[in-house]
Design goal:
By secondary structure, the chain is mainly beta. Helices cover 2% and strands 45% of the residues. The protein has one helix and 14 strands. Strands 2, 5, 6, 8, 9 and 12 form a six-stranded antiparallel beta sheet that branches. Strands 3, 4, 7, 10, 11 and 13 form a six-stranded antiparallel beta sheet that branches.
């Protein structure tokens, strides 16, 4: 007699075609469910502790605009949608940049390993790469980096959800700090059309490497 057995398999660091798992429910994620999933308008704004636009310092390139959307989410309805700013062609300019950041009051100790990242969907146009950065700071506004880690993802297809930190880069703390900041960004050169990028399911957590869940059957 043939028995069907439903198996749940965890794929580490893989965006699969099966049902997706949200980091927002993961107890290791230090971001609140709203800061992770962008389900309310309060998740994107100009105040400290909100996802907001770069730049932070005078002379930085301009990083476009971001806004909350009640639709378009990866695992829940809400999302953060952004359009880039054209800073002019390299080498004098920075191309078309889009970025958002989140400063989190999260004390970290020496030796701790922090996972970080999120997902992006390029819903219009195309990009050269998307990037995620995490750094520690002792400033309430995350001004001044201590330890830093990042990942550039050069494989970001259009119209599908892609993990920004595709290599599961982590940050190992070498100096105790009171805050951490995550940045999500995308870049296109002057030959690309303007693009629209949707972000969702952001995460920061100790030893956190998100997984995907997919169901299948065995005969």
């Amino acid at each position: 007699m043939v028995k069907r057995i439903l198996c749940i398999v965890a794929f580490v660091g893989l965006v699969s075609a099966g049902p997706v798992f949200s980091q927002c429910a993961d107890p290791d994620n230090m971001l609140s469910s709203d800061a992770c999933g962008f389900d309310t308008a309060a998740s994107v704004g100009d105040g400290t502790g909100w996802w907001n636009m770069e730049p932070e310092l005078p002379g930085d390139p301009l990083w476009g605009t971001v806004a909350h959307s009640a639709t378009g989410g990866r695992t829940s309805p809400g999302s953060m949608v952004g359009t880039p700013f054209d800073n002019g062609p390299p080498p004098m300019g920075w191309g078309k940049l889009l970025g958002a950041r989140y400063c989190l009051a999260m004390p970290v100790a020496v030796g701790e390993v922090i996972g970080f990242g999120g997902w992006v969907n390029i819903t219009s146009g195309s990009v050269g790469f998307c990037n995620t950065v995490l750094f520690t700071s002792n400033s309430a506004t995350c001004a001044g980096a201590i330890d830093q880690a990042w990942n550039d993802n050069y494989s970001v297809p259009d119209a599908t959800w892609t993990k920004v930190n595709n290599n599961d880069a982590t940050l190992t703390v070498t100096t105790a700090a009171s805050n951490v900041e995550i940045r999500l960004s995308c870049w296109a050169n002057m030959f690309n059309d303007d693009f629209i990028a949707t972000f969702d399911d952001a995460y920061i957590g100790l030893n956190m490497v998100p997984v995907e869940l997919q169901s299948f059957t065995i005969e």
